Each structure stands twice: as structure tokens, then as C-alpha cells.
Amino acid sequence: MMEALAFYATAALILISALGVVLCRNLVHSAMSLALSFLGVAVIYILLHAFFLFGVQVLIYVGAITVLIMFGIMLTRDVEGNLVQQTNRQHRMAAASALATFIALTYIAFQSHFNVTNATPGDSVVGIGVAFISRYVVPFEVASLVLLVALVGAIVIARDKEVD
Amino acid sequence: MTTATRPRVPRGIEYNLGFFVRLGLLLGVLGGIGAATLPAIPILGYGLLAHHDSITSYVAWLFGWCQHSELVSEGIYGCGQYGLPVPLFEPAVVMQRVLGLVGLGRPPKVTVDYVVAIIASLILLHFVVISVTLIIYILRKVIGYMQARLGPMRVGPKGILQTLIDAVKLLAKEDTIPGTADKVMFTLAPVVVFIPALLVYVVVPFGDSKGFIARDLNIGILYVVAMSSITVIGIILAGWASDNKYALFGAMRAAAQLVSYEVPGVLVVLGPVIMAGSLGMRDIILAQKGGVTEWFIWSPVPLVGFLVYLISSLAETNITPFDLPEAESELVSGYNVEYSGMKFGLFFLAEFANSFTVCFVAAALFLGGWYAPPVFKLAAGLTLALSVGLCWIELPFLLRWALAASALAVCLGMPDHGWGSLYWMMLKASGLQFLTMWIRATYPRVRVDQLMEFAWKGLIPISLVYLAAVGLWAAINQK
Amino acid sequence: MPKTEALQINMGPQHPSTHGVLRVILQVDGEWITSAEPDLGYLHRSFEKLGEMRTYINYLPLTDRWDYLSAMNNNLVYVMAIEKLLGIETPERCQWLRMILSELQRIASHLVFVGTFGLDVGANTPFLYCFRDREKILDLFEEFCGARLTYTCMRIGGLCGDAPDSWIEGVENFLNYLPPMLDELNALLTGNEIFIQRTKNVGVMSPELAISYGASGPFLRGSGVKFDIRKAQPYLKYPEVDFDIPVAENGDCYDRYICRFNEMWESLKIVRQCLDKLPDGDVQAKLPKTIKPPPGETYTCIESPRGELGVYMISDGTEIPYRLKIRGPGFVNLSVFPELARGWKLADVVAILGSVDIVMGEVDR
Q1: For the residues B196-221, what does the mean pLDDT come to?
Q2: Are strands C7-11 and C158-159 parallel, antiparallel or unpaired?
Q3: Residue C57 pLDDT > 70, yes or no?
Q4: Which residue of B146, B334, C81, C208 pairs with B441 in a disulfide if CB–CB is 3.0 to 4.6 A?
Q5: Which residues on B lie below 8 Å from A33 (Cβ)?
């Protein structure tokens, strides 16, 4: 019972903060709501007994990606005047297609069979590590290659023009 | 030189409504904490009268010789796993003792867990607040003595009440928010900086039993690192919400420093994790059992990991030589320039709490945690006596003799049932904290580009090599 | 294409690192300084105008306030100028004592420099050690003439009084006390890796630039120019004393710091020789009843801890000078600062300004 309560509370938190991201007029407020929704997702991971994912979610999403977004906001705008325009001319069309997508997704979600089990996963850290090395080694290596390329690209773009 | 009489310090605190509101809140919170934890004393006293017929059996029960007490039965309310005292955090036993003393039966386990979690968090809050108060005082005294001066001397005997009065002074200050600043974010920033500093204490192992760690999460060290990374958001928010371009520059610099130094810190922390085979803090310490030679500061690669962790954690907690974000003599002011009063106080509370956490984590990961050299009791007593002796002049009369008596007790080998592990853990953490204070007093400040260069071109390659070396060693030794 | 624009930052008169009320207007492009203009005058107290309104004797206490960290030297140059106009020779003992006082003052001033330079770079502890050692010197001065900062110790034709034997002993004790303290400061600051990184190759000044601006003192000698007024145009008894002039080659902040630090060692040597050679006798020469120098003009200069401190005095035969011009070393040295700061990073400005070692009292007069 307590777990159900925790789940619903966390889901409410995630949804409300996600709404906050899109509805806030101030960009920095949106960024903070985004951080809050990341934290909510991290709590969901705890409820699913995926503790390693919880730690990594907080570390990467809340700790690094939110920082990245805030740097992006603060360095590309004036310090004041972050107000965003909420709607544009296409908002009716956008609402209609969003509703259609929502209906489609809900239908698919209710139609599919989820394998629900009460078993708790074992020590997730070891399992994830082994999986990285054995079964998912190619995606793992490709992901690290992508990160390396991104890092090198960032340094090349950000270098001062005064190169000897 | 003529000796003048002590000048009368003028009382300049402005007593107005805001001051009393804040003071009331502070006293309320402290009172609440006290109310939650201090009733243990009369309850235990009641237990003495009600359930034991002699001091011996009461003390036996108190120190965890559970099998002699009739209050504990087997099953889900069994004794702590290690047979050691579980004074603080082990939910079932503590709760059962408390409730059993007042005559109630066994409550459902769920309620026990939640109630004891609340008590545990209150105890952690207590610990953090009191330890930070002491650390700030000791910092000022230690730096003062290193600089050929005395440090705080006026407020209270030998200046002991200085931090408390500074906290009251901060409460009394006018709580200014810049007119064009974003009020919500401005108030939120110190909170976002302070809360993770407090959260990390949940996994810090204070001693040898399951009762000495609030929750031994199996992702212990990952949790520590994750919570430390939330602080960066608070700092950027503080710089932005101040609506001051210099504060924003300072915040950006601080964020760059924190993010850069997280990387070698985390990489190096993985060394002990590989050696111990687990992310949990207790497991890492247990893997260092067996004497000083087993400590991870020596075993795979001597000293590199410890030093890199120490340096990167100095940078993470903004301690000189990396205290650029709060430097006064630098040109661009820091992120907390528009903050006054208790918000400013929260930033500093967070900084000192973080620095103490880092010392605990370093002691757990590299210095063998609570494991003590074999001649434990004599050594513990001698170190206690030495620290008492060094502070003899500074300590008031009763405290001197109380500490001397406890040193004697420890030397004589009275049973400690795990409390000695608490002492050793605190000793190592305090020793590292003293080391950071020493570094703070000695070194000049590193320039911001030298700082970044040092992190990216110096520490990260070293930590990568260290990690590779540890991994290789572990792989070889696993056969 | 994103455009960056230059930002103007005001390092205001109130700042922990400007060593007095100095305002520096910085134009910054990203992290790089494009221009650094000092805005002077915040401590201007019209000393030169006051010199035309006070008699020679009445003006003497005001000389302490030019460069208040080395007041003995201010007194010295002023009374030397008047003695030159009057044509008076001071007695031997007076000259040796003046040398001792002047060199002790040099040590005190350089201790303040070392302490505050460390503070600018972020080291908090050497500051307190330097001030603790400086207290000993100030105690000696207090014993001699009754004041710790603004002494009015040198009088026209002599000193304010003679030195008792206990004072001579005090100076001897101090000479034995200071060397281990200087070694400790050396270990703490000079050899410190972070300090070296902050100051080496920062704010490099070529000797041609320094000479063209008229820089003097350790500021000049740090760039390799071996020019010291005590050797080039000696005064008092400097020709009879054996000492070295520390000179460094690169002209960066570190070298200027090293020059001043080593000057402390040389001053200790000088004081020791003065104590050995100190004769007995009078300390005050015979003066006429009123000080009315014959009409004439003179320029007298000495080597103060900051450089060439000079006084250009025109007398018209009355008791009041016709013109008193003060050549402050800090003012001239500070004029090189915009050239030095350009092209460095924001964080280096504080170190470069600290290495110029200015005292606003003599910059603004």
C-alpha cells in the first residue's frame, strides 16, 4: 500500500514538473522543473529496485545535464528577459496531433501484455557490468566512441581563434 | 606596552520582528531535534527502574548483550547481525526497546521503519549542525595558531561560543533580496546547495555495526558522488538569481571548477570499489580488514588514489588553494555576493558539512575506515590522552578531567562493544579535516585557468592510469 | 557570427587588493585585459601646496605622511634637501644613526610588501608572520622617537635625540632575530609551487620600457638594470659600507618579489656594519636661530624602499619654501602599470599591481 502511494506521489511529481517545463514563462524556472522531473524519475528507479540506475540518473541527469542546460540558457540570453513566448500560430494543429498521439499511445499501452513479476532483481551493479562486457559490448563501445567524438568536437569548436 | 582593560563590545544587533521570527524558527527546530532525541534519557532511566534489578543487567542490556535481556526475542526482532551494540539506527531493536520500555507491545514493522527513519534523520541533522559548529570554531583557532595569533577568544571561554553567536548575528542581519532578482530562485539556491550536503551523511559509516550507518545502501559511494553533483545546480542558480553579472561570472567559474574536479574524484574512487568488489561503504571498509598494510591507500598503487581524491575534494568543497569562488581579493566576486543573513550562512554550512563528509569518505575508502592498529586499546587511550594533553590549556577544568578519565578507561581495556570503532573513524576523519585546515592556512590560491589545466591535463590522466593499474592488478589477482 | 564586446570593469577605490584608494578602470575582452587605466587622486592631500604655506620646520611632520610605510626615508630626503641649501654638515654619529634608521625602515616596508603580496595571491599566513616581525622594528622606533608610523625623527641638522645604549642592544637583538624568520618566509612563500605559478612570467617588463618611463627601485632592478642611488649617487655614509644590490633578469612579478626579499638581507648587513662603526659624539649640528636658507634650488634624492624618492626645493630666502616638489617613486612606477597589465588575464592584474608596490600616499601626494 505504501509502495502504491509512493508511486502515485512520484508520478504526480514527475507530471507536474514536466508540465512546469513546458508551461513556465521563465526559462530558468523551466530548467529547474526539468531537474525536479529527473529526480522524480530517479525515485521511480528506486521503486523498481534499480538502485544503480537511481545513482546514475541523479549523477548524470540532475548533476550534469541540468547544468548543461542552465549554462546554455544563461550564456545565450540576457540575464534578464528570459520570458518565452508560450504559443505560436500552429498551436491548434499541434494540440490536435498531440491528442492523436496520446490516444494512439494509450491504446497501444492498454493492448500490450506487460510481463509483470514480483521478483526483485539481484545486485544490479554486477549484472549491468557483466552485460556491458558480454552481451552489449558493441553498443557500449559505440556509445563511448560517440562521447569521444563529441568531446573532441567541443574542444575544436571552443578553441580560441588565436592558434599559432 | 600598557595593558588596557578589555573594551566593552557594543551590542549592535537590531532587534526587530524578522530577527525574532528567525530566532524562533531556529530555536524551534533545535528544540524539536532536542525533543526528539533527548527523551531517550528519561526513557532509559525509566527502563532502568522498571525492568532491571541491578545496574549490571541494565548496562548489559544497554550495551547490546541482548541475550541477557528478556525484552528481545528471536524472529523478525532479533539482535543486530554482528552481536554488537545497535544504539542508533537498527530499526527493530531500537524501536522495540523504546516501546517495550513504555509498556507497548510490538508495533508493525512498517511503522517501526518509518519512525526510526525519522529519528535517524534527526540524529544526522543534529550531528551535522553540531559538528559544523565545532569545525568552524576549530578552523579559526587552528588557523589562528598557525598564523601566530590566538583566534576567537572573547565570546565564551576561549571563544567557544563564537560560531553560535555568529549564527545569531547572521539571523539578525537584514535579509536582502535584490530588487530585480528572481525571488523564488534566489531563496531556493542555498537550499539546493545545503540539502545534498546533508543527504550524503545517510551512507557515511560512523562505526563498525549496522547500527552506526543510517542506511547501508548497496550503491553507497555512487550515492555520495551523485548527491555531491547536485550542489552545482544550486551554485549556478545562486549566481543567476542574483541579477548581477559579476555574480554570474563567479558562479560559472565555480560550476566549471566543480564539474572539472568531479571527474578525477569519481575515477579515483573506483579504485577501492574494484578492490572491494562492491559499491557499498561498509563492504569497502570490510575489505580493508587485517591491518594497516591492507588499507587501500597502499595496496594496489600507493598513495596516488588518496592524493588525487584529496586534491579533487579540496576543489569540490571550495577550500584554498581552490577557493576562487569565494575569494575576496580576486577581481570578480563570487556567486554569494548578493546573499546576506541566514541564506549566506547556509552556503557556508554546506561548505563545511561537505568538507567533513569528504574526510569521512576518504577515511572509509583509503584509510581503512574504523580498523585500528592491533594494539587498539592502548593506542586509543594514548591518542586520546595526547589530544587531551595538547588541548589541556584550552579546556575547561571539568572537561579536562572527564577526558583524562575516559582515556584511562580506554587504556584499561574496558569493553567498548564497537564504540571504539566510532572513535577511530572520527579520529581519522578529524585528522584529515585538520590536514585540510593546514593546507588552507599555508597555500596561496590557484588561478582559474591554472586550476582547469591542472584538472584536465594533470589529475584526469593520472586517475585514468591509476584506474587502469588497479583494474589490471585486480584482474591478475583474481585468478 | 557571434560578437563579443569589451566589458568595462571598475576595480574601485574600495577594493581589498588595490593597496590604498586606487581606482583602476579595466577594459576586458573575455578574460584578456585590453586596457588598464589608473584613476588617481583619491588620496590627494595637497602636500606640495602646503609646502608653500608652512615654514621649513613646521612642514617636517607632514613629510611622514607621503609614503607612510617608510616615513624615515621621507624625513631623510626632506632634511637632506634643507641641509644642502643651508650648507650644513651633520655630525658623524648622526649620519650613521640615520643610516641605521633608514635601513630598518626599508626592512619594515619590504616586510609589508611580502605580506600583502602573498595576501593578493591568496596566501593568508605570511601576512601575519611579516607583521609580527615588523612589530619588532616598530617597537625599536617607538623606543627611539616615540612613534610607530609617523616619526618626525630626522630633524634639520640632526636627529630628534640620541640613541641610548639599550636601543643599540635592541637593534643587535633584532639582527639576530630576523634571519631565521626570513628563512621561514622563504620556505613558506618563495619556494611554493602555486606562488611561483602565479607570479613567474607574469607582467614581464623589459628594461628599456622601465628606463623609458623612469621607473626606479626594486621595480626597475627586477628587470635587470643595476641602478641603485645608494651606489650611483651615494649619500650619508653608504660609500663606507659594503653591500650588494640584488638584481634579477626576467622582469616578472616573481623577480621583483625576489629583489625586495633579498634587499632585506642586504639591509641587515648594512645595519650590522653601521653598528660596528658607530662613533660617539653629538647628533645635532649647530643651526642658525631661524631656518632661512639662502636663495637657491636643489634636487635631493635617496633610495627609498619603493624607488627614487626626490625633493626639488626652491628657496627664496624666507622661512617658507618657494616651491616644494616631491618626486614620488610610486607615481612614476605606477605609470608603467597600464603597459604591464595589457595582454594579461584578469586574475593577473592583482598580482601585477601588487608587485609594483605602491603606497597611495606618495602616488597622490
Answers
A1: 83
A2: unpaired
A3: yes
A4: B146
A5: none
Query: Does A159 score more than 60 pLDDT?
Result: yes
The distance of C12 to chain B (nearest Cα, Å) reads 10
Cα(A56)–Cα(A46) distance, rounded to whole angstroms?
12
Quote ipTM for the complex.
Answer: 0.87
| Structure confidence at residue B42 (pLDDT) | 46
Distance CA A36, CA A32 (A): 6
Q: Is the CB of B216 inside 8 Å of chain A's CB atoms? A: no
List all residues 6 or more positions away from C4 whose beta carbon is below 8 Å from its beta carbon: C29, C30
Looking at residue B105, its pLDDT comes to 53
B113 has pLDDT over 90: no
CA-closest candidate to residue C344, choices C27, C116, C114, C121: C27
HEC letters along A121-142: CCCHHHHHHHHHHCCCHHHHHH
Of the partner residues B184, B229, B252, the one whose CB lies closest to the CB of residue A63: B229
Sheet strands side by side (includes C296-304): C296-304, C307-315, C323-327
Q: What pLDDT is attached to residue B79?
A: 39
Q: Within 13 Å and on the Cβ side, how many CA atoms surround B72?
A: 21
With 0-12 CB in 10 A as exposed, 13-18 as middle and 19+ as buried, what is A97? exposed
Give the Cα separation of A131 and B327 in Å (integer).
Answer: 47
Q: Cβ contacts (< 8 Å) between B223 and chain A: which residues?
A: 55
Q: Is B382 helix (H, G, I), strand (E, B) or coil?
A: helix
Q: Which H/E stretch holds residue C154? A: strand C154-155
**Adjacent-strand bridge partners of B1:** none
Q: Which of B111, B229, B284 to mutate to test the interface with A (most CBs of A within 10 A)?
A: B229
Contact B230 A63 (CB under 8 A): yes
Distance CA C78, CA C302 (A): 10
Per-residue b/e over B28-53, b at no fewer than 16 CB within 10 Å? eeeeebeebeeeeeeeeeebbeebbe
Listing DSSP states for B170-222 in one string gives HHHS-----TTS-HHHHHHHHHHHHHHHHHGGGG---SSSGGGSS---TTHHH
Contact yes or no for C67/C330 (Cβ under 8 A): yes
3-state secondary structure of B23: helix
H or E element: which one contains C315?
A: strand C307-315
Asked if C267 and C106 touch (Cβ cutoff 8 Å), the reply is yes
Window from B24-33, B35-44, B109-118 with minimum mean pLDDT = B35-44
Residue C239 has pLDDT above 70, yes or no: yes
**pLDDT, average across residues A63-81:** 79
B368: its cell numbers:
581503512
Name the percent of chain B in helix, strand, coil, to the closest 5: 65, 0, 35
Type of residue found at C289: K
- Burial status of residue C286 (CB atoms within 10 A of its CB: 0-12, 13-18, 19 or more): exposed
User: What's this model's pTM, rounded to 2 decimal places?
Assistant: 0.80
CA distance to A128, A138, B284, per residue, from A134 (Å): 10, 9, 26
**Chain B closest CA to A18's CA: distance in Å?**
18
- C114-170 pLDDT, tens digit each: 999 988 887 888 999 999 999 999 999 999 988 899 888 899 888 988 888 899 999
Least-confidence region, from A95-99, B110-114, B190-194, B245-249: B110-114
Band (B209; pLDDT cuts 50, 70, 90): low
Cell of C358: 605602491
Cβ proximity of A28 and A99 under 8 Å? no
Model confidence at C101, in pLDDT bands (50, 70, 90)? very high
